[in-house]
Amino acid sequence: MVTIPPQPWPTGLAEAVEPLVLRVLAPNPSPYTFTGTQTYVVGDPRGPDCAVIDPGPNEPEHIAAIIAAAAGRTILAIMCTHTHRDHSPAAAPLAELTGAPIVGCAPLVLQVDGPRSDEAFDPTYAPDRVLVDGEGMRGTGWTLTAVATPGHTSNHLCFALEESGALFTGDHVMGWSTSVVIPPDGDMGDYMASLEKLMARDDVRYHSAHGAAIEKPRQLVRGMIGHRRQREAQILRLLGETARPVSGFIPDMYKGLDPRLIPAAEMSVTAHLIDLEKRGAVRRDGEVWRVV
Predict the structure, then answer these.
(1) What single DSSP character describes residue 201?
(2) Looking at the domain 14-217, which fold is it?
(3) Number of other residues whose CB lies within 10 A of the CB of residue 36
(4) Residues 4, 35: contact at Cβ < 8 Å?
(5) What is the pTM of this model?
(6) How many helices, marked H, and strands, marked E, lie in the chain?
(7) What are the residue boundaries of the Metallo-beta-lactamase domain, all occurrences included (predicted)?
(8) What distance separates the 2 farthest-apart alpha carbons in the chain?
(9) Can you tell me whether residue 156 is helix, strand or coil?
(10) What architecture (CATH level 2) is domain 226-291?
């Protein structure tokens, strides 16, 4: 189990992670966000403009820290990878304070939102411009291009910084843990396809919304694909022993799991089962799953 490093964390500080990128940590640590959500300010620190990626939760001190990191530069775009509440709620107040447009993923509000283990969706998110795969934003000395990566959520985007080869991966690939895929919006088949899509790219590093920068991105993605395939094989093996409900997988698949993360593990197993069902490998009878 991954543990959160001891405090102090650099909450609210503008850290230079590469020449065109500052990172600002939001004050929202949790078992699902690690030390907090990381907002990125992209652009030459001495230049006239910048972009903000994943403005984070609507916390006044975090919004003030983002504005301080911009250091007088014009914010040309507030760019959101997806609309979980630890990523996009600060977009509206930041736009109101700076006049910057909100650009990036499509809005998404689930009509059915039962008990969840991840952050709920942000119903306040209202973009001025939605980016599709390959579209982007340009400023003075920086270019950000959208890379569609559905799976963690159906509206998830990554953003490629063309000048440095970095990719801002939001929650699709994180620097501390695997992403949680939660139906009905999260889709394991889409998630795996998006990982394969990143494997075909030549990004030199990833900056995720949670955790350290990833300096060997393709190696990590290869491992993530292998991990998910192992989980799938584990599910099929356990179903081969006996039919069971989702809760019946957890003791065998997640030994020593923090009890607070059991709902997330159950939803991840559910996402795998739904994907296997679509492929004709398993079926369900009420709440019990069995092999076909």
Answers:
(1) S
(2) Metallo-beta-lactamase; Chain A (3.60.15)
(3) 25
(4) yes
(5) 0.94
(6) 6, 15
(7) 36-210
(8) 63
(9) coil
(10) Orthogonal Bundle (1.10)
Q: Which pLDDT belongs to residue 4?
A: 80
Residues of the chain where predicted confidence (pLDDT) is lower than 50: 113-119
259 backbone φψ class: left, alpha, beta (φ>0; ψ -120 to 50): alpha
- Report the distance separating Cα 158 and Cα 80, nearest Å: 9
Q: Give yes or no for a contact between 186 and 151, defined as CB atoms under 8 angstroms apart.
A: yes
**3-state secondary structure at position 212:** coil
116, 12, 7, 8: which is closest to 56 by C-alpha? 12
| 212 contacts 176 by C-beta, under 8 angstroms | yes
Beta bridge partners of 168: 159, 207
pLDDT score recorded for residue 171: 97
Q: Provide the CA 190 distance to its chain's centre, in angstroms.
A: 14
For residues 168-194, one letter each, b for 16 or more C-beta atoms within 10 angstroms of the residue's C-beta and e for the rest, the string is bbbbbbbbebebbbbeebbbbbbbbeb
Helices (H), the chain: 60-70, 91-98, 188-199, 217-241, 250-253, 262-278
Q: What are the residue ranges spanned by the domains of the chain? A: 14-217, 226-291
Closest listed residue to residue 141, CA positions, set 69, 16, 45? 45
Question: Which two three-digit tokens encode residue 170?
Answer: 């939001």
Spacing of C-alpha 5 from chain mean position: 20
